[in-house]
Batch of 2 targets.
Target 1
Amino acid sequence: MEVSFSKEVQQLRQGAGETFHGEGILAITKALLQSGVAYVGGYQGAPVSHLLDVMVQAGDTMAELGVHVEACSNEASAAAMLGASIHYPLRGAVTWKSVVGTNVAADALSNLASPGVTGGALIVVGEDYGEGASVIQERTHAFAMKSSLLLLDPRPQLPNMVRMVEQGFALSEACNTPAILQLRVRACHVRGSFECRDNVSPAVSRKALMDDPARFDYEKLAHPPATFRQEKLKFEQRLPAARRFIVEHALNEIFPGRRDDVGLIVQGGLHNTLVRALQQFGLADAFGDAEFPILALNVSYPLVPEQIRDFCAGKRAVLVVEEGQPEFIEQEIATALRRLDQGNTGTAIHGKDLLQMAGEYTVEVIAQGLLRFLARHAANVSVAGAQDWLAANAARRKNVASQLAAPLPPRPPQFCTGCPERPVFSALKLAQQNVGPVHIAADIGCHAFATFEPFGFGHTILGYGMSLASRAGVSPMLKRRALAVMGDGGFWHNGLLTGVESALFNDDDAVLLIMKNGYTSATGTQDIISTPDEEEKAGAPDKRLSLVDRNQTIERTLAGIGVAWLRTVPSYEVNAMRRTLEEAFTTDYAGLKVIIAEGECQLERQRRVKPWLAGLLKAGKRVVRVRYGVDGDVCSGDHSCIRLSGCPTLTLADSGDPLKVDPVATVIDGCVGCGLCGENAHAATLCPSFYRAEIVTNPGVGERALDALRRGVIGLFQKP
Amino acid sequence: MNARQPVTLLIAALGGEGGGVLAEWLVDLATRAGHPAQATSIPGVAQRTGATTYYVEIHPQSFAELGGRTPVLSLAPVPGCVDLMVASELLEAVRAIQSGFVSTERTRLLTSTHRTLTTFEKMALGDGRFDDERLLEVAAANCRQLAAFDVDATAREAGTAPSAVLLGAIAASSVLPFERAAFEAVIRASGRGVEASLRGFALAFERCAAALGAPPAPGFPAEPDLVEIGYARVVEFQDAAYGELYRQRVERLRAAERQCDPQGRHGGALVREGARFLALWMAFDDVIRVADLKSRAARFARVRADAGARPGDLLRIADHLKPGLAELAGLLPPAIANHLLTLETRRQRDGKAPLAIPLKLRADGLAGFFGLRLLAALRPLRRLGRRYAAEQALIERWLATVESAAARDWQAALELALCARLIKGYGATNERARNNLRHILEHLAAAKPETIRAARDAALADEGGVAFDKALTAAGAPPRPVPPIPVRWHARRSA
C-alpha cells in the first residue's frame, strides 16, 4: 500500500476527552467506530481510498472491537455486503468512489433498498466532482432518488461530519433505509480536528457471534410479490419516518440572518463556499453570521416539505445553491411549496436560472449567481465590492494571458519514473510503425496515462475493466485487429467476466494486453488477489527485482477459463514486447490473444528498495547502483527518445555548446535505472548518446585493484 | 491583513513533492500555537507527478481570543484572496497567477526559479521550452512581493525534500504570525529525516529572506565568436585542411551578406548563424566522431559526476550503440557502399528489419575502450567515405541556395541559412531531416522569407511531417514524396 497510516491507526483508538487531528475521510473512519459499526467493506478509489486502507492497517484495533473489515473485489460486492443489515441488527458501512462505483453497485443497491434494513447501513461515497476529479461528471443524488436511499451531504467541518455519521446510522435504522454519505474531494482531504468519543464495540460482532441465522421471512426478499409491497413501504412508511427523524434531530441546520425577506438553501457540503461568497459582498463575517438566513441541507434527500415551507414563509425569494445537474433539489422544493400552498406561495424559487447549471460551485461561481439574485430581490444591498472583485479577477486573467503571449503547457499526471507500463507503450508505438495503426480500447488505471503525450493512445474508455468488452462491436467491423489494454486491477474488478469470458464465449478475434504490475496502483497500490505474497518480498535476496512473476493467479485463471493464446513478456523488454504485439496483430490464430506485460509497480518496488539499500550502505556492504545518462555532445537535440518515453527524469538541458541552439536530452537525479532508455535506444535505433552507468559502492579489494589497473592502461591511450 | 479574516496560503506543487506533508506541517504549526487552521487538497491521480495544489487557511486569532467562536474556513482558494502563494516550480507559480489567485494588492509570492519541463515542452523536435525569463517577469509583475530562489537545488543541497525548503521560505516571508522556532519545532516533531529537513529549512530561510523583493536579474552572456569556435570544432573533427574549407565557406557567406547588407545593418547575423550551423553540419556525427567523443577522459569524468559516484566508488559505463548498415556503409567508398545499400533497401522492401548491430559496449573496459579508439583512428579515411561525400554535396547545395537568395533579399538568405538547423539526429531521423532540408532548398529557394520560416518551423513541429506538408502545400510547393514503408498487417476476412 502506498501510504502508511501508523499515526492515524493510533488516533482510531482515541477515546472521550482526546482530540482527533487529521483528514476528513479518517475522521469519518473514526466516527464509524464510535457508532458501533460491526462490518466495513468497500473498493478503493480517490478520494475515499484512505478509509479502507487505514482500517486494513488497523487490524488489531478492529479485532479488539470485533469489527470485520473486507477489501471487496469491486463496488458491487461491497454493496451486496450490506445485505447483512437486512435481517440482523448489524451496523455496516461500505465505501467507494462515486459516481462510477455507485454505477457498479447499482444492482445490489436496488435490491438492498427494496427490502430495507434492520441494522443501520451507511454508504460513504467520495463525490468525485469538479476540480481534481478523474471520472465522468454525474450526481450520486439520482441514485438516492431512484432507489429511495437517504442522502447525507454534511457541512464540511469535522465535528459535523462525524455527527452525520453517527446520526446517519440512527436515521437509517429509524426508517429501515440505507443511507449514502456523500463527501466531495476537498471534504475528504480537509485537515481539521474534533473531540473524540469512545469507540463502541458492537453488540453482535466477530467477538460476540449470533447463535442462529434469522428465521425465513419472505418479506425481506427483493423478490415478487414482496417487491410490490416494499415499493409502497418506501413512501408510506420509510421516507415519512426519515423526515420525522430529520426534523426531530435537527439534522438540517438553519443559520438565522439579520434580515428575513430573502433566504438561501444550500447543500450542506457547499455551506463554507457559500459563506465565503457572501463575505465577498460583506454579507457574512468570518464566523458565518450572515445577512440572510441559510438552510444548510445536511440531508439532501429526502427533503422535508414542511421544513422548506417554514423556511420560505414570509420570504420574497429563496436561492437554492445546488451543485451539478439536473437541479433535483430545486425541483423538489418547487413541487413541495406548490403542493403545500396550493400554489399561493409568494416566495420566488431561484437556482439554476441564476447559477450555472454544470460544473463545480466555486466561490466565484456562487458569487456570480448571488449577484443576479440580489439584483432581482434585494436591490438595496450594495454589491459594488463583489462586482469590483469579480471584474478584477477577469481583468487579471486577461492581462496575464496577454503578458504570457503563449498558452501555458498543461501538466497532466504521467507514469512514475521507472514505471513498468511506460515501456509497453513504447513497444506499442514501435509495433504500430510495422503493422499499421490499431484501434486501442483503453481502460481505467495508470495505463490510461498513455492517453496523454507522448503516446496519445486510446480510442475509448468505457469503465473499469471494460476495455475488452468495449471493442466487441469494433473488431467485427475492422479489417485490422483491435487492442484492449487492461490493468490487473481492472481485470479482477470485472474485466475477467465482462471481457474475457464474453470474448471466449463468442470466439472473438481480439487482442488483450494485461498490465500485471501486482496492485491497483492508480488508487494507491492496494493489494489484489494476484499481489506477490509478503513472504516472497521478505525472502527475495535482491529487493530490486520485480516479484509479480511469483504470483500466477492471472495466468492460471486465463488458462482455466480457456485462453489458448497466452504470452507473458517482461514489460521492460521493449523489443520482445514489440515482436509479441506484432505477432498478436498478425497471427493466423483467430481467437482471443492475451499478452501479459509483467513488471511490478515501481512505487511498491522503491518502498522495498530504498530502506534495503540504505541498510546495506550503512553496514558498509557492497552496493551496485544503476543510472542511465546521455552524452550531451553526442545528442543532436532531436528528442525522439523523449517522444518514445516521457519519463520524468529524461528531460532537457541547455547543450552547453555555443554552436548548438537546441537543448539536449539529459537524465536527472531520480532515475531508478529501469533500463527503458537503453531498451528504446536499441529497439528504435535511436542514437548513440545513451549510456548505462553502474556505480559500485564499497567495492571488493579484487575489483578495486582490477579497476585501478584498467584505468592505468586506458589512461595511457586516452585523449583529454 | 484583517485580524478577523483567515490568513490564506495556496501551495502549487507537483505530485510526489511532499506538498501534502507541507500542508500538514502548516496545520500542525497553527494547532500547536492554538489557532484554528484547515488544509485541503485535491491529489487524485495528480499525485503521479501531475500539477496539483494544496490550500491552507489559518485564523489570526487564537482559540483563547475567539472565546468559543469557530470561524468558517473555506475549502478552496478564492481568486485574488490569497495572502501567500507558494510554488515549488516556476511554471506552476505562473499557472496559479493565470488562474487569477495572485493579486498585486494582497499576494506575496514565493516561487522556485527552477523548471521541471512538461512533456509537451520536452517532445518538440527543436526547443519547445517555455521562456523562463518571461515566466519570471510575469511572476514579478503580478504579485505584491516576490521571492524567487531555486527550491530544487536548495533541497538537493540539503539532501531533503522540497517540502522542508518551502516551509523555510514560508517562515522567512513572515506572513504567518509565528516565530521561526515554532516552524522548526514542527519539523522536529515530525520525526523523520529531521536533520536534513532542518538544514533545508535554514538554507531556504536565508535564501528567501535575501530574495524577498529582489527578483534575480537575468544574465546576458556575451555572444562568443562562433566562427572561431566553429573552425576549432571542424579542425578537431577532421584536420586543418577541412578547417580551411570551413573558412572558405564562411567567407562565401560573408561575401553574400555584404552583397545584400553592405552597411551591416543586421550586424552580420547571416554569417554568424550560417557559420554556426555550417560547423555543426561539417562536424557531422558519424561512427568515427561518436567513438572519439565516447572514449575521452573528460567524458569519463563527466559520467562520474552525473552518476553521482563518490570517491572510492567504482564506475562502469556501458554504451547503448546500434550502428546500422547505413552508418557503417557511410565509411566505405561510395561504389561499395551504394551496392550494400541497394541490397539493404531490397531487404527492407521485403519487410525485413533493417540490419543493425545492437551493442552494450563497456567503454571503460579494455576491449570496449580500444575498440572505440580503433574506430576513432579511422578519421583520415573519413574523406573517402560515402557519408562524407554526401554531406559535402548537400552543404554545397545549401550554400549555393543561400548565396543566390542573398542576391535578392537578406532576410530570405538568413531564413535559408537557418534551415541547416534541421540537420540533426542519427540513422532514419537524420535521413528524414536531410530530405526535409533538400525539399525546402528545391521548392522554396525563391520563396518569401516568412514562407521559408514557416516551413522550417513546421518541419520541427512533428515527427510525421504533417505540419511540414501542410506548410509546403500552403506555400504552393508539392508535399514530400511518401517514403515506401513496408507495413505488415493482417487483414481479417469479412464474414
Note: Chain B has a mean pLDDT of 91.
Target 2
Amino acid sequence: MAYVAVKGGEDAIAHAHAWLAEARRGDPAVPELSVAQIGQQLGLAVDRVMAEGSCHDRGLAALAIKQARGDLIEAAFLLRAYRTTLPRFGASAPLDTAAMLVRRRISATYKDLPGGQVLGPTFDYTHRLLDFALEAEGAPPPEPAPEAEADGAPMPRVSGILAQEGLMAAEPASEAPPGDLTREPLAFPADRPLRLQALARGDEGFLLALGYSTQRGYGNAHPFVGEIRVGEVAVGLTPPELGFEISIGDITVTECGMVNQFAGSKTEPPQFTRGYGLVFGHGERKAMAMALVDRSLRAAELGEEAAAPAQSPEFVLYHCDNVDATGFVEHLKLPHYVDFQSELEKIRTLRATADAAQREAAE
Amino acid sequence: MSTAGAPLLEAEGLTLRFGAIPALEEVALSIWPGEVVAIVGESGSGKTTLLRVLSGLVRPERGTVRYHGADGAVRDVHGMAESRRRLLHRTEWGFVHQNPRDGLRMGVSAGGNVGERLMAVGARHYGSIRAEAAAWLRRVEIDPARMDEVPTRFSGGMQQRLQIARTLVTRPRLVFMDEPTGGLDVSVQARLLDMLRGLVADLDLAVLIVTHDIAAARLLAHRMLVMRHGRVVEQGLTDRVLDDPQHPYTQLLVSSVLAA
Amino acid sequence: MTIAAGYNFGYLDEATKRMIRRAILKAVAIPGHQVPFGSREMPLPYGWGTGGIQVTASVIGPDDVLKVIDQGADDTTNAVSIRRFFAKVAGVATTGRTAEATLIQTRHRIPETPLREGQILVYQVPMPEPLFRLEPRVAETQRMHALADYGLMHVKLYEDIARYGHVAISYNYPVMVNRRYLMAPSPIPAFDNPKMDRMPALQLFGAGREKRIYAVPPHTEVRSLDFEDHPFVPIRADAACSLCGSRDTYLDEIVTDDRGGRRFICSDTDWCASRREEGR
C-alpha cells in the first residue's frame, strides 16, 4: 500500500537529493575529482558543454560536468540556466578567424596551401587500441611534443582562395545586427545568421546524424572540407563609454568551411557554395556536422529540391536544441495521472461500443 | 483497328477480396490489338483494382491474365518473373496514372521524363533522345522550349500530357489508363480527351481505360464493361451499351449522365 | 618486422578472415555486385578505410609486399597510418614502389604505373551504392540492381548534359561492369576510370561502414557511362607536373600564395619520383 496517496513528496525529494549527492561523490575511498582536473583532463567534454550551453567559461562548464556526474546534456542545461541570469552589457565584434592563432589547420581540398597544413593535437591518425599504460597512475607527464617556430605566414581561408578565382559563391554582406535566439523566439523563415546561431548551440549528436544523412543521399550533399582550423581568437568589444574597440580576451574556437559542389544553372555558372560551422572550444565533429547541415538548410534558397529532413529548417531548428529536447522527452516521467485517467475511460467506452457492434453483427 | 487473330490480353476468373469485401468476382475480359476498352462504374466498383490486376501490379486470389507478347509468346502475367514484368512495363506496356505525380519524376526535367523510357530500352544518343523528346512534347501540345523545366512548374493538364508523352514515347502496344482526366477541370478534360483520341488512332494503340466519366468512355472506347460490386454486369460495343443499356445499374448510370 | 603481441596475423581472427574471403569469392564470381559482409569494428574510424583494411587483412600473407596510398601518395597521413598498422599487425614488407608491391591498398587513386597480373588493388569505399544520390532507400536500389533497371542513372546523365552541357560528375563516376552491374568505382577521379577496364590485376572494393564488398576480376570490361554523342572524357588539370614535367598524369593543385599563385604536381608520388630518377 506504500504507493497510495503519495503525500510524502517533500521527504521523498529530500531523500532522493541526498542519494544523488552520494552517488555523485561515489566511493569516498576514491579521491574526489577537482574542477581543475576536469578542466585539464576532460577538456573536450568541457568544450562540448560550453558549446551546447552557449556560454564560454571553462571553469563553470567543468563545475557543471562535475555536478551533472558527467551527463553532458545535463551539464549544458546547468550552464544555460546560469547563463540566462547574467546581465548583458554588450555584443562583441565579429570574430576574425583569419587572424586566429592556429593550433590545428587542415584542408582536404589542397595538398598544400599558404600557411601549410598543421596537424595539431588530433585523434585522426591514432590506432584505436586501448592504451592500458594509461591505467597506471602516477606516471610522469609525457615528454613535450617537438615544437616548430611559428613562421608567422598568413593563413588565408580556403573559401577566400576559391572566391578569388570566382569559383565560390559570394555571401551577401550585411551590416544588420543578427537576431538573438536567447532573447527572441525562433520564427520562420529563419535567416542564415539565426540558423547558424541555433546550430552552434545545437546538439552534437543530432547534428552529426543529420549531417551524416546528407552524405548518404538524404539531401544530396557533395561536401569537401575546405578547411578546419582550431585556435585562439581575440574577442573585441566596443564599450559605449570608450567608443573604440578593445580586446577583452582570447577564446578557443573551431571553424569549419565546407566546400560544396555545383549549384548554378544555364543562367548562373556552376560554382561552389559554402557550408559553415563554428563552435566554442575544440569541437571538429560538431563544427563539421554544423557546416553540412548549414549547407543543406540552404537548399531551398539555392533552388535545389528540398525533401530530406536535413533540408527542412523547421525540422532541424526546432529539434536541434538538446535542452529543449531533453526537457520534453524527459517530462514524460512527470505525473500524467489525470490525462491518463480520462484516456482509460475513453478506451473502455470505445471497446464497449466495438464489442456491442460485433455481437450485433454475429447475431 | 488492326485485326490480328489473337487477343493481346486475356483474363479469366479474376477474383480478389479485401477482407470481407469482394473487389473482383469472376471477372473475364479480352482486349485485341488496336482496341480501346473502357471499364466504367462508380467508385468502389472494383474498376481500378481490375486495372491493377490486369497490369500485374496486384495479384488476384484466383484467375489468370495472359499476355500475347510482340515475340509471339503467350505468358501468364502473374506467373512471370518480376524482371520480365518490369521490362514489359518499360517497353510493350504503358501505365497512365490518375495523378501525374505518380507517373512522373517531379525533380527531373520534362525532357528527361520523356527520355527516360527511351534510355531504358537502350537509346544512348543524347541528340536523338532529345529530338525525340521534343517531338513528343510538341505532339502533346507542350512547348519544346520548356523541355528543361521540371514538371512542378506545369499546370495539372500539362503534367498529365507530359505523363502521356512519357508513356507513349516507346510506342507501347498496350496502355493502361486509370482515370486519366480525373483531377482536371472540365475544359481541360475535353482538350485532353480530344488529344488522346488522336494519339490512340495514330499509334494504333490498344488501351484499357478506367473511368467513371461516361462521356469520356463514349468518346474514346470501342467497347465498354460496366462494373458493380466487383462484377462485370454488362459489356458490349460502346454505342450499344450507352444507347440500349440492358442491366438496371447501367440504365441508372446512363440516365444519371443524361440528367446531369 | 615482428607481429604485435596479443594480435593474430593481420589483426582479424581467422574465422573473420574466412568470412570476408567468402564474401570476396562471391564478389569475384559476380563482377560489380555488392556482397554484404559482417564488417567488424576496426581500430581506425569508419571513413578512414576500414573496408579496405578488412579486405587487405583477409588476403594478405607473410610474403606479400604492401603499398598503401591515399590521394595517390605514400606519404599522406592516412596512408602512413595504415601502412604502419599492417607493418605492426602482419609484419609484412612495405614499399612505395607500385611495381614491387603485390598488394596495394588505395584511397581515391589508381597508380599511374600499369598494374600486372598477380597484383591486387584494394579500394577503400565510402559509399558502395552508385545510385544512392538518386535513390537513398537501399531496399529499392537492391531491386534496381536485381532487375538491371538503371534508367535513373541515365536520366541523371541526361539532366547534367541538358543543364551544364556536360556530365557534372568528376569523381566516383559510375561504371558498368561486365555489361551487367552498375558500380561505384569509389571516389577516384574520373581520370582513373579507363585504367579499370580489362585491368590484369584483381580489383577488390571494401566498404566497412556500409558493410559491402565488391570486385572486378582481372581482364573484365569496365565502361564509364556516357552517350554516343557525349562520350566519356577523363578530366585532368591542363598543366605539366612542376617536378617531373609529366603531361599525362593526374595532378594535384598546390596553392602557393593568396594572390592566385598555383603550381601542379603529380598526385602519384611513386610515379613522379621514378620519372625524376630516370631523367637523371
Note: Chain A has twelve helices and four strands.
